[in-house]
Amino acid sequence: MVSERSPEQALQRRPFGSWLLGPVDQSPRRLRLRMQILMTTFSIATNLIGALVVFVLAVFVLPGPPLVDQLELVDAIVIPAYLVLAILIGCVLCLRQTRRVTGWIDLERPATPREQIATLQLPLRITMIQVLLWFGAAVLFTIMTLVLQPENALRIALTVVDGMIITCSVSYLLTEFALRPVAARALADSSPPPRLLAAGLKARTVFFWAVGSGVPVAGLMVAAVLALVERDVTATRLSVVILALGIVALGNGCLLTWLSARSVVAPVRSVRDALRLIGEGHLDVTIPVFDGTELGSLQAGFNQMTEGLRERERIRDVFGRYVGPDVVQEALAGDRLGGEERYVAVLFVDLVGSTELAAQRPPTEVVELLNRFFAIVVSEVDRQGGFVNKFAGDAVLAVFGAPSELADPAGSALAAGREVARRLADELPEATAGLGVTAGIVVAGTVGDVRRHEYTVIGDPVNEAARLSELAKTAPGRLIASMSAVEKAAPAEADHWRQSDLVTVRGRSVPTRLAVPDR
Question: pTM for the full model?
Answer without folding.
Answer: 0.63
